[in-house]
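Researcher: Quick test of sequence recovery. Tokens follow.
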């Protein structure tokens, strides 16, 4: 029986390994993590991450050919193939701070693999890493004193799943990318991994490349997607200034087969663990290679994203008579997109901090994000989702509540920051009746029916749509 070990039981490692176990009953899959709390959650009825369909997959395989464990060394030792899905956050200090990927977790995983391995292994990079990481990993593995006679093949097999649709994306991927050394041993390792995916993925969707192409493709993929969002968000600002409507512009663009319909929804900004990190990574690689103009081009994608978030905050403040001090603002949605509990780099963090900076009182409701997480996100910078205990200093002007009606009760304004479906079906007349007047709605995801809300009496701002007279008469934004 082939044995696989997945190191890192996070948003990428957990679902990916679970789907491999589901689709390959003849393969034994062990998912390991240094975090005891995370592993015990994977072994409980309340999984550590929310992802539609994940629970069913885990329930089908756990205890059969899928196990979760903190005994990292044992399972790495026994495995033929090791998938590494550890976190690679942006470095916060030292050389390349703010841009380069922090490979501390990767390096310690590689050192541990070298320490415990007694036979040849295929090591698969799943987490996004800077181009040529495989080279560094190979050096760590091969120069370990325990590694005498042991051969490692490093493969890059970047994950393209989106959170919220991870299981569907894994079950039915539009492509699987496998990069490896182009020597006979490398090609053999590529075939070994290809054989696993071939259990359920049609062969023509499995692309094989050299190592560096696979690593760079992942960064390029995310940079291209993020760039589309920043492009349409930049257009949204121009729409507001001119009276064009961004959804009509998107629709027109989407019919151009050279452009297509996806990733053209204007929003309060993109979030998630990948886009910003990967672009920063790309910028760093460009700068390291002396490609200043190319680096600046990609930096601009992030700048426009930051601009979109601050533009939203300014719009809220200027619309509400230039101050939100002491006013209650209901925040509907905190996750970086719908159908996930993940808040990493969610635009809600910057928007909430911006409003708090103007002394607003926030009442936050998200169907999936816990109060503890929201407090953690708003009280400190750059913290991974389960790495730190709860901050002792709660943000006083923030309360987290259990539903949208409670959040909006006696509020002066509402900000929609995540496109959860349930926000479309709220009884907005009831909401309006319980709010201070004039009652404002700022739709950061363009999911609401603006005309209906205006009929009820709300003053509505919706990204990239013509401004109503009220908002036009407010002082111009910088
Ligand atoms: C992304 C990539 O899509 C995936 O291929 C990669 O492997 C990991 O990163 P993910 O971070 O899960 O996936 O989310 P995604 O669906 O790409 O959305 C990212 C952000 O962009 C979200 O905040 C989302 O709300 C925003 N977005 C997306 C828009 O603002 N407009 C759009 O049209 C699409
Ligand atoms: P991603 O979104 O890329 O999956 P996460 O932060 O959700 O990122 O998951 C990464 C996981 O990797 C975390 O649960 C972390 O505890 C785990 N991890 C990091 N370093 C190691 C290591 N050396 N051995 C085992 N697990 C590790």
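Model:
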């Amino acid at each position: 029986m082939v044995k696989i070990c997945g190191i890192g039981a996070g948003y990428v490692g957990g679902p990916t390994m679970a789907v491999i176990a589901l689709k390959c009953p003849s393969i034994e899959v062990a998912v390991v993590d240094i975090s005891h709390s995370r592993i015990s959650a994977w072994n409980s009825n309340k999984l550590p991450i929310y992802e539609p369909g994940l629970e069913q997959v885990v329930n089908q395989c756990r205890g059969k050919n899928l196990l979760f464990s903190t005994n990292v060394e044992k399972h790495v030792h026994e495995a033929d193939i090791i998938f590494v899905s550890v976190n690679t956050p942006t470095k916060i200090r030292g050389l390349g701070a703010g841009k380069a990927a922090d490979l501390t977790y990767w390096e310690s995983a590689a050192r541990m693999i070298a320490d415990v391995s007694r036979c040849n292994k295929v090591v698969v990079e799943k987490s996004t890493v800077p181009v040529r990481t495989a080279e560094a990993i190979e050096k760590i593995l091969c120069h370990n004193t325990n590694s005498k006679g042991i051969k490692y093949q490093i493969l890059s097999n970047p994950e393209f799943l989106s959170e919220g649709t991870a299981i569907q994306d894994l079950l039915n991927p539009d492509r699987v990318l496998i990069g490896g050394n182009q020597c006979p041993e490398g090609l053999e390792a590529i075939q070994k991994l290809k054989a696993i995916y071939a259990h359920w993925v049609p062969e023509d969707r499995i692309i094989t490349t050299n190592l560096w192409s696979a690593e760079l493709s992942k960064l390029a993929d995310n940079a291209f997607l993020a760039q589309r969002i920043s492009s349409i968000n930049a257009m949204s600002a121009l729409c507001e200034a001119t009276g064009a409507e961004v959804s009509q512009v998107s629709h027109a663009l989407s019919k151009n087969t050279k452009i297509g319909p996806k990733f053209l929804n204007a929003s309060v900004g993109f979030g998630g663990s990948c886009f910003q990190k990967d672009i920063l990574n790309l910028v760093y690689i460009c700068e390291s290679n002396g490609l200043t103009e190319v680096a600046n081009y990609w930096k601009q994608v992030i700048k426009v994203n930051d601009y979109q978030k601050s533009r939203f905050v300014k719009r809220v403040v200027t619309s509400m008579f230039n101050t939100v001090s002491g006013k209650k603002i209901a925040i509907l949605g905190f996750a970086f997109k719908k159908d996930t509990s993940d808040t990493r780099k969610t635009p809600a963090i910057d928007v909430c901090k911006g409003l708090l900076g103007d002394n607003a009182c926030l009442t936050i409701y998200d169907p999936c994000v816990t109060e503890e997480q929201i407090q953690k996100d708003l009280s400190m910078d750059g913290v991974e989702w389960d790495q730190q205990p709860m901050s002792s200093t709660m943000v006083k002007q923030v309360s987290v509540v259990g539903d949208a009606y409670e959040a909006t009760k006696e509020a002066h304004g509402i900000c929609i920051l995540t496109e959860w479906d349930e926000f479309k079906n709220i009884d907005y007349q009831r909401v309006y009746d319980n709010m201070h007047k004039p009652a404002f709605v700022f739709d950061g995801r363009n999911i609401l029916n603006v005309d209906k809300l205006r009929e009820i009496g709300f003053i509505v701002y919706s990204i990239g749509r013509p401004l109503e007279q009220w908002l036009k008469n407010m002082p111009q934004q910088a």
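The chain has two domains: 3-201, 302-473.
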